[in-house]
Amino acid sequence: MALTWIAALLAWEMAYRLIQWPAWQFPAPSHIIDALFELVGFKTALGAAMSAHWPSPGPEDGRRALAFTTLWDIPLLQGLAVTGVRLIIGFFASVFFGLLLGILMWRIRFLNGLFGPLFLGLQTLPSVCWVPLAVIIFGLQETGVLFVLVMGSCFAIAIGVRDGLRVIPPVYQKAGQMMGAKGWRMYRYVLLPASLPAMASSLRQGFSFAWRSLMGAELMFMAVRNHGLGYLLDFARSFGDVAQVLAIMILMIAIAMLVDRMVFARLERKIHERFGLLQG
Q: What pTM was computed for the model?
């Protein structure tokens, strides 16, 4: 599979070298790499025309594309740090409210009938639709970005937790009652462990919603003081830098895939292994 992707990228690069279409319309992989390195202050010039000194950017450009005095001045590192802090705060808030609402809807039938269809509709609402409301309530502030993130992901987590708790066999609760588990002990020793597979899947789904919501919010909240990856994407768009737009988009995808595989997929697999839910 990896060889297939490498062959496709090489063919894409060779097509650019042979046809020489405008880089500002359809950049080659080398231009995207150049744009990504420029975000951290280096000029690689891999997309430059082939010459005896290729891929050197030339003595007049130097090895630095921009002069940064501190690490915080590097746009990409600043964007990653700001986006990461927002994601951690907003996702934990989404998990808290999502778990609380999901458990309440599972436990209280009236609340499920009242909020279940509403949450399902809110889950399907694109996260950017929350931006106008966030601007009216919070203004162009950091809290507005977090509001969009939470509203775009907590309902998906709540529905996932509710549906997961529904599949717990009733015999578990009856067995717990026969063994003397009542009140909070029923939740601590019976219902909570039995709901872990559902909660793991809900967290994984909630992260994908949270990431998309955050990227959309950062694109729209351009006036906030701290600039994340979404701001860098729109900044590149405003200058018509197609290569940098694609570079940031690829970076967003890579971060989401990395976190999903390294954190949530592993967590889900370990829990499923513990409960014997894996096939093969």
A: 0.83
- The string of pLDDT tens digits covering residues 72-99 is 677 888 889 999 999 999 999 999 999 8
Helix H or strand E encompassing 256: helix 242-259
pLDDT digits (tens, 9 = 90+) for 105-117: 988 989 899 898 9
Residue carrying structure tokens 């010039």: 45
How far apart are the two ends of the chain, measured CA to CA in Å?
23
CB 216 within 8 Å of CB 148: yes
- For residue range 125-182, list pLDDT tens digits in order: 888 899 999 999 988 888 999 999 999 999 999 998 888 888 777 787 778 777 877 7
Average pLDDT, the chain: 83
Torsion region of 159: left, alpha or beta (phi above 0 gives left; psi -120 to 50 gives alpha) = alpha
Angle between helices 242-259 and 229-238 (to 10 degrees): 160
- Residue 37 CA to residue 77 CA, distance in Å, equals 11
Residue type, 132: P
Three-state SS string over 128-192 comes to HHHHHHHHHHHCCCHHHHHHHHHHHHHHHHHHHHHHHHHCCCHHHHHHHHHCCCCCHHHHHHHHH
CA distance 131 to 121: 17
Q: At what angle do helices 29-38 and 2-19 cross, to 10 degrees?
A: 100
Could you tell me the CA-to-CA distances from 126 to 84, 153, 184, 231, 254 in Å, in that order?
22, 10, 37, 19, 22
CB atoms within 10 A of CB 48: 18
